[in-house]
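Q: How do we represent a protein-ligand complex in a form that can be generated token by token?
A: Start from the inputs.
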Amino acid sequence: MSGILKTRLQQGHRTFTWPDGPLPPLPDRFRGRPSLGDAACPENCGKCLGACPTGALHLEDGKAALDTGRCLFCGACATACPALRITFTAEHRLASATREGLVVRPGDEDLPPRKVALARKLFSRSLKLREVSAGGCNACEADTNVLGTLAWDLGRFGISFVASPRHADGILVTGPVPENMRLALLKTWEAVPAPKVCIVVGACAISGGPFAGHGEVHDGAAGLIPVDLFIPGCPPHPLTILDGLLALIGRID
Amino acid sequence: MTDWRNACAIPLAGLADLSVWDFQDCVSVGLMKGAQLLALFGVPARVGGRQDAVAGGHQDAGASEDPDCVRLFAVLGHPGNGTLEPFSTVVKDSFLSLAPIHPQVQLFERELAEKWRVKPQGHPWFKPVRFERPSRDGADLWEAHPAACGTADFFRVGGEEVHEVAVGPVHAGIIEPGHFRFQCHGETVYHLEILLGYQHRGIERALTGGPGPRTLHFMETAAGDTTIGHATAHCQLAEAVFGLAVPPRGRVLRGVALELERMANHIGDLGALAGDVGFLPTQAFCGRIRGDVLNLTARLCGNRFGRGLVRPGGVAFDAEPARVREVVRLLEQALADATGAIDLLWESGSVLARFEGTGPVSAETATRIGLVGPAARACGLSQDVRRDYPCGIWADAPIEVPTLSTGDVFARARIRWEEIRVSAEWILANLADLPDGAVRAPDAPPTAAPWPADTLAVSLTEGWRGRICHAAVTGPDGRFAAYKIVDPSFFNWFGLAQALRDQEISDFPLCNKSFNLSYCGFDL
Ligand code: SF4
Ligand code: SF4
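Then emit the structure tokens for the protein with iron/sulfur cluster bound:
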């Protein structure tokens, strides 16, 4: 017992104070929200398109636009771009209430829309979620799980993960949804009483991620379940996930 | 005879097909003499095969030209001298199962049946592995294949008082899906059967025809908590086929990343084990300390799981002196915190009472089923790729391999702590002595460029769960005819099933956590 107390004192108080206090530190090499410079691309360049493993980039009026819902944040496009137009900023706020809001265009500095009226009205002080891993690689799962540790202490916002879908206000899906997992996902969703929300976390759950187009998967959950919040990344940083959840319930804007 | 070693490129022209009989005999005798079956997989028979002669002489005439046949490759590892031994043969519809005498072969054989529709005759428990689509036309080996995932016969114990408990695929926590079927009498588990496949994303099928722009991403996400382990195994293959030399500084940084991955996961597991026996202090502390270690990896490359760090020829990010000093300082801090948090476990009678004697696996069982990694070392099997098949940094800077003997939850917990300590010391010693120079070979080819043609390449890494084996076979065009990934969980799920025998069903979460295996690494 004395050992436990001594260790407790040594470990100290480690819960981040954010959103009331400063942001938790992010590593200097962190690849957050992409920024696409407004300068024109060299004509017929498309080098970034060729470098991208998931087809996250496309040209609009001769300029590259980037769909963060497909992006693995690997940085290959930034390296490939001869005009240095693509950079990955330290901006951790990536979540969007709409699929279209995930597309970043040149000069686009505004955050995507994040207001989900239903969730702000009903779940602002208590949100119980059932997590369903459907082909997730265990990184999105791990960085969702980590929100329950004392460093993040998700419970202080009234958000927690519950064992039964019957006790949940919604589901949080990770992974590209393999055909082998489709039925279990749908049954879990159906078992959640309405009104309910669906949150998808990670490139896989949004678009199939690295597995997009594989016959074995359904390219994420959106084709099967109406999605209320998309949180991109591969995996998203825990701060990005928490930011999305807090925006969903209206704890932050 | 060339002595093949870890990370080797074997020209297929030098590998003669054996008769099926001789092939099975070589594998069987090897295993009896203490070899490890690293991989057993198939490719279409048109790939590989030496044109001149057929050793052994019993092979079906013309089988190797028959487009409907399947060429099998087996790779044995000899941990005593660090050599690898490849064999190949050609089969048509079936072969005699080795599983009855060598249980470690059983899952590979079922996989061959599922992928290639070749039946292992006499297999003691013949059922699908991950409910994937077959790669070859032909007769269904199971009724209605591909059946819906999870529909299969389960082993049943008879008797009025026996009951069955089914759990999953969706579990209570934030974890991956899988199905567990227990045969119980009262609280006692007679038998546990584990059925997976729910995470199947088609990685191996998608790799066929590669390498391509996604190849490295498949490696990094095959089992996302083992990003460094799988990426390293893959990059070692690429380096072997292209003859790339990883510069010394890059070698050390790779080793550091691998050991950080081990530390983070082991610390997380010890916290979770504490949580499963209701010992909250260690659970709470370790949950945070694990994150601190993941953040060290993020300091190296920007991503907590090491995405984008390991690349063919070395690593994609250098660590300048200030960064190295910072990593060292934070690692020392994390180790001190972990020591305090984890020592509490060994000092608490209530924890030890739950850990000791729970879920034991004997050394004999572990050997027969081919258990790997910390789970095997906890049973007294002294095996570790870093020592037995050293490659890269492990040839220059060896690492201590602790073992324990009781094979129970306690041993699987304690071995993790020993490994955390050893890994931290190794990282600190090697960062103190970090060589100068480049971190990546300048001549690394683009990731999607074809590999040398007609080659079998094999590589091993000791991931945090144990031995990872990657094997690639290229066709005449230098594209993957097959890419085999053997995650440690491929062997170890069966170990968990064994550990539950005669245990109380309420001990399942604890036993499960003491293995903490990968679902997606198994399902691929
Ligand atoms: S960072 Fe995203 S958009 Fe750029 S290449 Fe990688 S996956 Fe594609
Ligand atoms: S989005 Fe990336 S990290 Fe998340 S489950 Fe998919 S592969 Fe893993």
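Strands of chain A lie at 34-36, 57-60, 63-67, 86-88, 103-104, 127-133, 159-161, 170-174, 197-201, 229-231. The mean pLDDT of chain A is 92.
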